[in-house]
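Quick one, T. Sequence first:
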Amino acid sequence: MKHHPCVQGSDLWKSLRLGVPTASEMDRIITAKKWEPTSGSARRAYQVRLLTELILDSPLDSAVTPAMIHGTDFEAKTKATYEMLHGVDIEPCGFCTNDEGTAGASPDGFVGSEGMVECKSPFKPEIHCGYLLNPQTLADEYWIQAQSQLYICDGRKWTDLISYFSGMPMVTIRVTPHAEFQQKLDVALRSFVCELSDLVERAKAEGWIKEKRESSADHTRDWLTQSDVDILLAAKQGDYGQPTNQNRIG
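Structure tokens:
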């Protein structure tokens, strides 16, 4: 696992996720019932979405719903309640990738050296009440996401799925790695990434994706920027007059 420290939702976090399949979307890569690679329009649509992000060099942000806002607003309270009940500290988590960098996850926090948490704060209290009556439904609903986090964050031994609504007891159910699912997820992910890579290579060949270099804050960089090239070509054509020594140092 590679952990990239950053604030979730920040520009850096968004840039790290560009074109990378993530744990929350793994149900578009592997089926929930038979644990087989997905096929058809949903799979292709996800690949095209990731490719589009790379072409635009920008995330395709989904619409923000009231339920999403509610979950974000109550995440800190959910974490604090979990910490109090279990006597632990939740450490911040940025963006995690597998060693190959072909998949990513953003758990809501790390617990010690072995655990993670994924917080769900339902917008409707009756949803939480349903989890309260049958905690397994919480695990069933987010099982692929939790298993995918464990796959990507290799070395972490469990994820606690948490549901909390103020005025009601907290629901916590622990998910541990499922060896058979993890193996099938690996197969499904590799085939998905292979297909996505073919699309990316085509886009590069067509010139849709431009190679990017990391920018430098000073002038000691060892490559030319487009601005450098424009200035050099303009000077060669005489637009800037004859070279002088006015800017020489020393």
